[in-house]
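Researcher: Please translate sequence to structure tokens.
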Amino acid sequence: MKFTIERPDLGKALAETEKDIERAVTWGMRDAADGLKQDLREDVVAAGIGERLSRAWRGKTFPEVGESAEAAAYVWSRARKIIDAFNRGVVIRSARGLFLSIPTAAAGKRGRSAVG
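Model: Translation complete:
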């Protein structure tokens, strides 16, 4: 009776494992960036700032093409100053320094006039 032992190629197995890790990290970063971007968009809409402004959030994953075990993601807003103003609770004023008036349904349909 003759026995034979086969040893798998360790280098090949490690290379395949490394590829799996790169794929998992890259897709994880893409999912994280997309999830954060979606959460921020929902926060803007929920705060009543507007659907249009919510679409100012952008995200980018690096590397843009291919996969890497050191993948990274960056999420930012194209309306950085507007978002910052709402976060800090800045008082919005007109160009002459007066408060900005925004009509609402509670104000009624008749307003005050400077004439008579």
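Researcher: Any highlights?
Model: Residues 10-107 form one domain.
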